[in-house]
Amino acid sequence: MNRVTIFLPQFRSALQVWRRNGLVWRRLLGPSLVINFGEPFLYLLGLGYGLGLFIGEMMHMPYLTFLASGILASSAMNTASFEAMFSVYTRMVPQRTYEAILATPVEVQDVLAGEMLWCATKCLINGSAILIVATLLGAVHDWRAVFAIPVIFLTGLCFAGPAMIMTARAQGYDFFNYYVTLLLTPMFILSGVFYPVSSLPSWLQTAVQVLPLAHAVDLLRPLVSGRPLSNVALHLAVLAAYALVGFAIAVCLIRRRLLV
Questions:
Q1: 142: which DSSP letter?
Q2: Residue 147's pLDDT band (cuts 50, 70, 90)
Q3: H-helix or E-strand spanning residue 61
């Protein structure tokens, strides 16, 4: 096996891992949707309407619209990250599911590709629900919002990769607090979810452009609000790069942890 093929998953094997996770999740459909969908829904109602009453417009759009597009991106970030950390760690360590899977003709890269697809699928389910609610609340102003669906899927892949790196290094669930506190929370606050990035100091605006959530927000906000898109290739490239690099590093680390 050469250095290239150890990173190339078999689609059929990855799809079987994805299907296995889906069958398990189906039993927990109700609680899972409440947890992953309830918080963003409350943000839309509480901040979109409550705070929006005082703010009015932001960046020439109703604050509810501004917030809804940010919540779509941040919800994908949180859903993918928590699934790729807590759920993947549970399957890898306490349940030892990966040991059973790897006893079959399935490789580590196949397992992780299936996990990333499942993370992105959960983002798609939750994001679609939020998009429907935002539409019913009057926050969506353009039919191009349907193109937010593939962007949400890509955002899920983007955040699943780096989160699986954390899982590969974790020795317990408490380890994930570092990632949530030091990376996810700052991204949630600084990446334009609640206010424009342009309101930050210039040096911080430059730093924020390294964060993938800012690029997801910049793609989703014009689609939801009906404003022109810009720098699409750059935003897509950044999200894809985080997904691919995160996947490659996670494969190396988890292979070393499970097989060496």
A1: -
A2: very high
A3: strand 61-62
